[in-house]
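Structure in, sequence out. Go:
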C-alpha cells in the first residue's frame, strides 16, 4: 500500500483502502481504481466543446447567389440585362409607350402608377412575382358555350385593385409577358 500512496493523493488512498479486498492468508491485495472522476461525454475521445461563433469546418460555404447559373436567373427576375443560356445578351425591361387597345387600359391607370407597379413587380423575387400575377388574374366562366373549330383565346382577365375597385386591364400594360 505504500507504493500506491506515493502515486495517489491521500483522499484517493482512503478510497482505495476502503475498496480493497483482503484475501485470507494471502499477501495480494486487489484494488478498484477509478479511471477518471469526470464522466462527462464531451471529454471522451478528445472531443472539444465548440463555441457557437467558431466556424465548424474549413470547407467552402455554399453561396448560391454567386453561382454562374443563378446570376442570370436573378438578373432576369429583376428585369435587368442578362446573358441567356445560348449566350445572347437580353436587354433590361423598360416601360413601353401606350398601345391603342379597345379596352382603353392606359386611360384607367396613370403613367406614374404604371411605373410604380413596374418597379414593384421587378423588385420582387421570382416567387413573389408569381404570387403577384396569381393575385391579379381573375378567371371568368363563359356565358354561353358555342361550337367552334378554331381554338378560342383564354378567358382570363388581368385586373388590379385601384381605390377599392377592381379594374380589368391588359397584361401588356405592365409588360409582364
Amino acid at each position: 500500500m505504500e507504493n500506491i500512496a506515493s502515486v495517489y493523493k491521500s483522499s484517493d488512498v482512503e478510497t482505495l483502502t476502503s475498496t480493497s479486498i483482503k484475501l485470507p492468508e494471502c499477501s495480494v491485495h486487489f484494488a478498484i481504481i477509478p479511471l477518471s472522476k469526470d464522466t462527462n461525454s464531451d471529454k471522451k475521445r478528445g472531443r472539444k466543446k465548440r463555441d457557437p461563433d467558431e466556424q465548424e469546418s474549413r470547407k467552402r460555404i455554399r453561396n448560391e447567389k454567386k453561382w454562374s447559373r443563378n446570376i442570370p436567373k436573378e438578373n432576369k427576375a429583376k428585369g435587368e440585362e442578362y446573358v441567356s443560356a445560348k449566350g445572347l445578351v437580353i436587354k433590361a425591361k423598360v416601360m413601353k409607350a401606350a398601345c391603342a387597345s379597345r379596352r382603353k387600359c392606359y386611360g384607367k391607370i396613370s403613367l406614374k402608377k404604371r411605373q410604380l407597379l413596374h418597379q414593384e413587380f421587378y423588385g420582387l423575387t421570382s416567387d413573389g412575382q408569381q404570387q403577384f400575377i396569381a393575385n391579379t388574374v381573375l378567371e371568368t366562366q363563359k356565358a354561353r358555350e358555342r361550337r367552334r373549330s378554331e381554338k378560342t383565346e383564354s378567358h382570363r382577365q388581368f385586373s388590379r385593385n385601384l381605390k377599392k375597385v377592381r379594374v380589368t386591364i391588359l397584361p401588356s400594360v405592365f409588360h409582364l409577358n
